[in-house]
Amino acid sequence: MLTGCQGAQSAFDPAGVEAERVLTLFWIMLAGGTAIWIVVIGVSYYAARGKSGPYSDRSGIRLIVWGGCVFPAVVLAGLLWWGLTMMPELRRAADGPTIAVSAERFWWRVAYAVEGEPGVIRNLPRGGVPSANEIWIPLGKRTEILLSSPDVIHSFWVPPLAGKMDAIPGRVNRLVLEPTRPGVFNGACAEYCGTAHTYMGFRVVVVPEAEFEAYVASQALPAATTDGSGARLFVQNGCAACHTVRGTAADGDVGPDLTHVASRRTIAAGLLPTTVENFAAFIRSAEHIKPGVEMPAFGILPEEEITAIAQWLGKLE
Ligand code: CUA
C-alpha cells in the first residue's frame, strides 16, 4: 500500500500549492479522527467492562450534553471554519497563462490562450494553440485551467498538483494550478464517463517559464513534415475526417490535433509511450488497446499503408 505514497500520480507526494493544503487538511482530519476514535473505543470499553451498577441520571445527561453535543459541534464548526478560510486563497486569481481544457470521450482537448485572442477561451475549446492529452505549465506561476465538456460530465484531476474539478457540458469551471517543483505528473479523469473512462489520462509537464513560452511557440507552428506517402495516405484513408494536422489537408475536429503528436510523451490519452510501433498498433485496432475508444479500427488497410502513416506520425514533433 505504501507504494501509493509517492510517484507522479500520488496526492501524498504534492508538487503544487493546492495539493499541499489538501494533504495538510487530510493529515489533520486523520489525526483528529484517530484520537476521537480511541476515546470513543475507550469509553465503550469502560461502559462494558468497567464499574458495574447503575449510573446517576445526572452523570448520564452530562456525558450526552458534553460528549455528544458540545464536543462534536465545536470540533465540526472549527474544521468547517478552517476549511472555509482555506478556499479564497486557493481560488485566488491566476497570474500566469490561461489554458482551455475540454474533456471529451475519452481524451483531453487542450488550447493555450494566445494574447489578443480573448474570445478563444469563452468559446471553449476552439482557437488558441491546440494540443491534446499533455498540458505544459510554467513553474512558479498560477496557471488558470478553464474546464468544459461537449458531451458528459468528466472530472479533471492531477493528484500531485491540486484537487479535482468537474468538466460540465454548458459551463466553464476554473481551476488554478500553482506547481512548486518541475516534473512530469499524471492526470486522470475522476468521474465515470463511459466505457473508456479508465483510459482517459493525460500528463502535466511543469517547466521554467522561458521553456513554457518556447513550447507554446513551437506548438503553434505547422507540422514539421507535410508531404510524403504517410501524409497522403492519412488524408486518403479518412483519418483527416477526425484529426487535424496543421499544414496538410487534414482538418478534422472530432479527435485530437496531431500536428505535433510525436512531441508528446504518450498517445491514446496517456496510455502508450509515443513510438512508431504504438502508432501502428493503435491504427490497426484501437479498441484492443483502449476498450471503449471512439476511433474505429483500421486493420482493413494494407500493412504497408499503416506503417507509412505511423512513420509519418512519428516525425510530427
Ligand atoms: Cu472522462 Cu471519466
Structural write-up:
The structure is a single chain. The protein has 317 residues and is α+β, with helices and mostly antiparallel strands. It folds into three domains: 89 residues; 114 residues, Immunoglobulin-like; 85 residues, Cupredoxins -  blue copper proteins (Immunoglobulin-like). It has eight helices and twelve strands. The strands form three sheets. The chain has a five-stranded mixed sheet. The protein starts with 16 loop residues before the first helix and ends with a helix. Bound molecules: dinuclear copper ion. Dinuclear copper ion binds next to loops.
Poorly predicted sequence stretches spanning 5 or more consecutive residues = none
Radius of gyration using CA atoms only: 26 Å
> Quick one: how many beta strands?
12
Beta-strand level of the residues, as a percent range?
15-25%
- Count the helices. How many? 8
Instruction: Give the averaged pLDDT, no decimals.
Output: 90
Bound compounds? dinuclear copper ion
What global shape is seen? Answer: elongated
CATH fold name of the largest domain, please?
Immunoglobulin-like
Biggest sheet features: 5 strands, mixed
- The topology string of helices and strands comes to HHEEHEEEEEEEEHHEEHHH
Number of domains: 3
Helix content: 25-40%
Amino- and carboxy-terminal Cα gap: 38 Å
Determine the oligomeric state from the structure: single chain
The CATH level-2 architecture of the largest domain is identified as: Sandwich
The first-level CATH class name of the largest domain: Mainly Beta
**CATH superfamily of the largest domain, please?**
Cupredoxins -  blue copper proteins
Helix-and-strand structural type: alpha+beta
Placed side by side, the strands forming the largest sheet appear as 3-2-1-5-8
